[in-house]
Amino acid sequence: MGRSGFGVLALAAVALGACSSFNFTKPPPPVQPNIFPTAYRNEILTTLNQKLTDPTNVRDAGISDPVLQQVSERDQRYAVCVRFNARDINRQYTGDQERIAYFYGGHLNQLVPATNGQCKGAVYKPWPELEKNCQAKKCS
Questions:
Q1: What is the DSSP letter of 63?
Q2: pTM, to two decimals
Q3: Domain residue extents for the chain
Q4: Sign of torsion, CA 129 132 137 140?
C-alpha cells in the first residue's frame, strides 16, 4: 500500500472518530426539584409494603401533607411525615415509628427514619390505606 493508501485510511479513521463524538440526541431537560408530589400516598404505601418486615395489620397509621422543608443551606424539598406501628418478624408490634419521605421532581426519593425533631409539629391525618392495604389483598 502506498502513501496515498495510508493517507486515505488515516483520513477515514479521523472522520469516523469525529462522527462518534457527536451527540445527535438532545440532553434531557433539567428536573424541577420541587414539583408537588401528587401521588405521594401511593408511592409511600408501595415503598412501605416492600420495606416493612410484616406490612399486614399496621396500627395507628398517620400521614402529613407535603410541605417544603429545608434540607440544606440552599435547598428545600417536599417532605411528608409518616407514623405507624408495624409488626416485626415474630408478628409482635414494635411501637410507634416515624419516617420522613423526601421528594425530588414530584416523586419519592428517600423514605428514612425521622430523627428527633424532623417531624416535630407535623399534623398527622389518619391513613387507613396503610392499615388495610394487605387486608384487601388477603396478605397473611
A1: E
A2: 0.75
A3: 40-136
A4: positive
